[in-house]
Write a structure and sequence with these properties.
Elements (H helix, E strand, L loop, with lengths): L7 E5 L2 E6 L4 E5 L1 H12 L8 H8 L22 E5 L25 H17 L5 E6 L8 H12 L5 E7 L5 H10 L2 E5 L4 H7 L9 H14 L3 E7 L7 H11 L4 E6 L13 H21 L2 E3 L19 E4 L4 E3 L12 H4 E5 L5 E3 L1 H10 L14 H4 L4 H4 L13 H19 L3 E2 L8
Length: 444
């Protein structure tokens, strides 16, 4: 017997947001409308001829749920792209670095390993008849510190049959020559800049203790001059949280990003072992709302990783399913934040390695078991949560627990995810004239 379509009733003032996440449709109604909707869905989605049911039919609210999008590893692991952790070295010593970069013995990915990863992932994508191939540089250090391997990987992927999209997460602290090469050879960049100088220099100092602000602003000037498609990542800690929205305004006033991603500090690495207090996270929620309105007026997307109603998926990210994620030593990991064999979760998330011949050696059962265990419908804690098809149980590195039910532990992010998803739904409903049907403000 087919399961009933999933519908959530989210309290809003004296009414309810009626929300069907898998068809990305929402509107605000009263209790009578909620009862009618539930009744009609239980009867197979057939209207009763009333004006209210005609409205529900018109907006498609009574149609069946599609299956959730969930990239699966399957018996043949065929990723659509590669993410390379080129190095664990970094020229900064950020106060909250999740990888505590620079504190472990240095490790750099060799060009041979990088090219083998590119070759395998490209051929995999081609075998799946993908329209393009994606290469990303990420990980527990600054990718440009392993410059020659990075250039070799980019050169290799540009020679391939499939059109490629090459991107990088970076701190932006390098000279003009490197910045110009990046702008001319990469398709996108996520650049960390936490705000004006007094915030950036405190949170993201150089290894020698100096500031990084001036160097990052020079890189941004180059990116803007060259027309590079880039986004800015802002992280707020307990001290900078009251200036969070003003930091977003600073970026809008002094740079030209297409997108700004904002996050509270995570309790990993140098970020410490405890989450921010409830008061600080409440402040994050309110600052996000202020910054979101400002970005909307400027035509720049503001995003937070745990609130994304425009996405429905059974996976929080592509690691381990759609992307081949490779550490500097050739290990394969199912998480973008489990970057080294020394990471406490490595034994759970590492599922293979690239061998001397350049081919991945996989424990497919381990990978499949890990990913299946994180399916939102299997997480008891998430069962009644209206965010579950968007955050998909949230980032595995933040919520994984050996001893917890379903190997899952909720975090304070869950409340932030719910509050900001609700806020965004209301924004989308308003911009849609009373009904949100999947499109975003501005028509995207």
């Amino acid at each position: 017997m087919a399961s009933l379509p999933e519908i959530f009733e989210i309290p809003f003032e004296e009414k309810l947001i009626l929300y069907r996440p898998l068809i990305r449709t929402a509107f605000v109604g009263n209790r009578a409308m909620a009862n009618l909707t539930a009744e009609l869905l239980e009867k197979g989605g057939k209207g009763d001829g009333s004006k209210a049911s005609s409205f529900l039919e018109e907006i498609g609210f009574l149609r069946p749920d599609p299956p959730p999008a969930r990239p699966e590893p399957g018996d043949n692991y065929l990723p659509m792209g590669a993410t390379l952790f080129l190095t664990n070295r970094c020229n900064l010593s950020c106060a909250y670095c999740y990888a505590s970069s620079g504190e472990e013995p240095p490790e750099d990915m060799g060009a041979k390993l990088a090219l083998a990863a590119v070759d395998f992932a490209h051929d995999s994508a081609q075998s799946r008849f993908s329209s393009h191939f994606e290469l990303a540089f990420h990980g527990g250090g600054e990718p440009t510190m392993n410059w020659e391997t990075m250039r070799a990987a980019v050169s290799r992927v540009r020679e391939k049959a499939l059109p490629s999209l090459v991107s990088m997460a970076t701190n932006g602290v390098y000279g003009r020559e490197k910045a110009e090469w990046i702008a001319e050879n990469l398709d996108g960049v996520s650049l960390s800049l936490d705000g004006p100088a007094h915030i950036q220099d405190r949170q993201r100092p150089s290894r020698s203790g100096g500031g990084s602000f001036q160097a990052v602003m020079k890189t941004i000037e180059t990116f803007d001059r060259k027309g590079l498609h880039y986004g800015v990542r802002i992280t707020a800690d307990e001290i900078s949280m009251p200036e969070f929205a003003s930091s977003v305004k600073f970026v809008l006033d002094n740079a030209g990003p297409r997108k700004i991603q904002v996050e509270p500090v995570f309790p990993q690495g140098r970020g410490g072992g405890e989450w921010m207090g409830e008061e600080s996270l409440d402040r994050f929620i309110e600052e996000f709302k202020s910054a979101h309105d400002l970005c909307l007026r400027r035509g720049v997307a503001l995003v937070y990783s745990g609130a994304r109603p425009e996405i429905t998926s059974g996976r929080f990210c592509r690691a381990g399913s759609e992307s081949l994620v490779v550490t500097p030593r050739g290990e394969l990991t199912a998480c973008f934040e489990v970057y080294s064999s020394r990471h406490p979760l490595a034994r759970h998330f590492f599922f293979g390695r690239i061998d001397e011949s350049g081919r991945p050696v996989l424990d497919k059962n381990k990978l499949r078991s890990l990913l299946d265990s994180r399916a939102p419908e299997r997480l008891e804690y998430c069962r009644e949560c209206f965010c579950k098809w968007h955050c998909a149980g949230d980032c595995m590195a933040k919520t994984f627990s050996e001893s917890g039910p379903d190997k899952f532990k909720p975090t304070p992010r869950c409340r932030v995810n719910r509050e900001l998803t609700k806020y965004l739904l209301l924004k989308y409903i308003s911009s849609g004239g009373g009904v949100w049907r999947g499109s975003l403000p501005g028509g995207s």
